[in-house]
């Protein structure tokens, strides 16, 4: 049995790209018979400025979304990073073993710091070390992440190897598992690009909380082409993306979808797609609201998760303190 660990930032309302690209695959991991850990990395989120009230809301919303999507707290240890203080404690110790040059090479840091000069936060620079602590604390075997996070997991491997060499075998050297780009959803208004919540226009994405009217409006406005046939073809990114969404929300294959719209135009297809998307999202929204309207159950799950995570993490920290020579 392997231990599989991953984490997501609490970044607000999610779109259907995040849902099918990141959350659904995590739900799928639960059936693999491994031990799963999933947490909301609120201390990573504050590496850029956050409004406290909004952050609180986003943490709750993230946890509610995972549960509504099918994360079962009996099968997955679900918790909030800041509740387990060992993460930041281990990050400090690892900080003392990581070199400036290693962090300067991180492409995510270079991207995010671009143009900000010396005003960029030390936390943003140190972000990968906190992530390494997240991973190493739990004797993690496998870390499923998007491609952009591979370099961070490789740094965690290097740190684990360095620590083990210097102080004797302490950490498992984790393996990244890069999620296959199966469900990549494109922007509705610019189908050559990916759907993203940081887009300028709300017409770019369907939020998982959008109501029926909004979904219909956005899908009707989605960019297609002048060919008018419902056919999946990479050279026609607009209609291809809408077929992908139809397939994800209904579970039907592309072929089945193409066949049922043979001889019919985009108008019919878009109206059906909007109806099917709403049919998919409504029960999810109802469950999310259920958790948010009665946060007691949600808080209880997070409390429980934090205390189980803490039991594992504090034992590891005892070992680390002993190895580095601060335990008397
Ligand atoms: P955004 O661009 O909306 O800010 P993030 O970069 O925060 O999204 O990504 C969060 C997670 O959602 C990542 O795991 C990423 O791979 C996944 N994701 C983001 N956008 C899409 C998309 N359009 N299609 C599929 N998965 C996506
Ligand atoms: N940095 C990751 C991201 O932005 C989130 C993250 C933090 C993470 N700690 C982690 C992912 C540990 C996997 C394991 O997507």
List the main descriptive attributes of the protein structure presented here:
mainly alpha; binds adenosine-5'-diphosphate; 328 residues; 8% strand; 2 domains; binds tryptophan; Tyrosyl-Transfer RNA Synthetase; Rossmann fold; 55% helix; 3-stranded parallel beta sheet; 13 helices; single chain; two-stranded parallel ribbon
Would you mind describing this structure in some detail?
The protein is mainly alpha-helical and 328 residues long. The chain folds into two domains: 213 residues, Rossmann fold, CATH 3.40.50.620; 81 residues, Tyrosyl-Transfer RNA Synthetase, CATH 1.10.240. The two termini are 35 Å apart. α12 packs across α13. The mean pLDDT is 95. The chain contains 13 helices and five strands. The site of tryptophan (TRP) has 13 residues, from β1, α7 and β4. The site of adenosine-5'-diphosphate (ADP) has 15 residues, from α1.
What layout of secondary structure does this protein have?
Elements: E1 3-8, H1 16-29, E2 35-40, H2 42-45, H3 52-69, E3 76-80, H4 86-95, H5 100-104, H6 107-113, H7 122-136, E4 142-145, H8 150-167, E5 175-178, H9 212-220, H10 237-250, H11 254-260, H12 266-293, H13 295-324
Parallel strand pairs: 1-2, 2-3, 4-5
Helix pairs in contact: 3-12, 4-7, 4-13, 7-8, 9-12, 10-12, 12-13
